[in-house]
Amino acid sequence: MSRHLSALFLILISVATAAKGFSQEELRKQDAIVQMLENNFGIQLAKKQIEIADNNRGILNSGYLPSIVGSADAQYSEDNDTRSFPGVFEEDGTPREDTVIEGAETQQYGASVNVDYLLFDGLGRYYNYKQLKEEYNLTELEVRETIENTILQLFTVYYDVARLSENLNVLQQALDISRERVTRAQYQFDYGQNTKLEVLQAEVDVVTDSINVLSTKQQLQNAKRDLNVVLNRELETAFKVDTLVNFQNEIALESYVVDAKKNNVTYLQAEKQIAISDFQIKANRALLLPSIGLSGSYGWNRTNSPASAFFPGSISKGESLTLGASLTWNLFDGGRSITNLKNSKILKDSEEIAKAQIELQIDRDIANAKGNYENLVTIFNIRAQNVDTNKNNLERSKERLNIGQINSIEFRQAQVNLIDAETSKNLAKYEAKLAELQLLQLTGQLLNVEF
Known about the structure:
four-stranded antiparallel sheet, 6 strands, elongated, two-stranded parallel sheet, alpha+beta, Outer membrane efflux proteins (OEP)
């Protein structure tokens, strides 16, 4: 590898490192959650469902309020009338003249208010109202599930950014070491202490490390765009993330596992479905009972009548007040009510079966998640110890390389081992943290812990 090509790579990496060095906003975990809750499209849509469910459970949709209908009407007519009186004579014996009425106007006005109120419907209205409240609670749980899933999605990407950021630092340090090797190898070659092969090998390692840095940097940029999508903000927004990871206390985790069924969102949804089915049964049973209704109306009318051949014009006014009560009992509707009642009972039985299945699946998922989390934490601790071992090995290898006890290939192997150890440790750390978050979700505690 020529010295000019190696220098070109060094310049490229120096520019990239300088650009990276500019101060960037630190996106803390809690800040990311706040932005996600405010901006994420999926959560915004879920909140709209909450608004609809809230409207449905309101008193205006309960059926408890009366219905009031107001009406008004006005009519106008104009008539031309001619009346003849054949065979009718005046006192002087002349035939009576025809009576002609032109432009006879008739005006009618009226207004009424009708009130109907369902006093009793077999408690069907009551159970429907209860059902709507449970459906609102179910919608709340569905929104909570959406938020939990989005938080997991958020931290999957967030920790991917953190992992790549730490890997980039590791690879940058490796590049710095390789660059120092090039300088030292060139000096040694100039003074006849080693061969040109050592210089070329060092330059090859610089190129390899440069490519690794550039590739990781591109992966990091892609991961940051993914995170900006989750947060619903400008794709090219620059930021850095918090790479510190704290694991939950083991005693607290055990208590979460014990109380998992009280807090698991899927299990709580199954319970709400059963409650809704129970109210549906009661509402369908109410259809077999009579209903009692009250009604009332108030009306006002006025009629202006024109004069006719026999009567003078007149004005009539009237007011009316009507009160009534009704009893309705649908004795037989062809069997539809009975069929609906039977089907609602079957639906509740199905919900009970689904709940038992969900309970078993939750037990399995928690056991798997707990075992996976504990295994990954153990792996992370082992990886961390391995990093310390490889750091010591690299330091000793550097000393031995300087005094000529090992060649550049053996030193490079020690350097690669450290790179692999550190990147593996980073991967294990974030995999363990994500496994912990999955366990917290299953136990229903994901929204109750500090990140």
